[in-house]
Request: fold
Amino acid sequence: MKTGNGWILNEVSSDTVYLLSKDFSFTPVMAQTPSVQSMGEHPQYLSFLMDSYHYQFMFIQKKEYDRKTQSGFPTTAVMYDKKTGRVFEQNFYDANRADKVFDFWLNGTNQMAESNQYFEEYSTHRLKKYLESGQLTGRLKEIAEQIDEDDNPMLMIVTFSINPAII
Reply:
């Protein structure tokens, strides 16, 4: 993932997240403890997702699967405060969708537009489905009311605040 003047490199089976600089030098950004290799049968993997002015966003996924219930791989989204060194479980709420958590990490792809920005693509079909079920509010609802099923997808760009407030 591109961040500032370099690239963040993360392999889930590795314990260390690195920054690759323009001069091709590697700098450790963070390390997972205990080591993934020492966790035995059910390790927890750290995946770096994105970087903002004050926070680094990542998720922790446990290697657990229940064949009976066909469910598993529980995932927790966390954020690291670069100023205080604290880690928080993070929950963002999407102001355009009532009572919905903003799951920017669910698709597992790097959707950083630029430093401190994230983007989400909404298909017209998905927007119409949310509209019909009463799940949209605000600007996204206005857009969904004006589009047709065969229109191009809508791109939502989220810019993180330089001066965030934690609620």
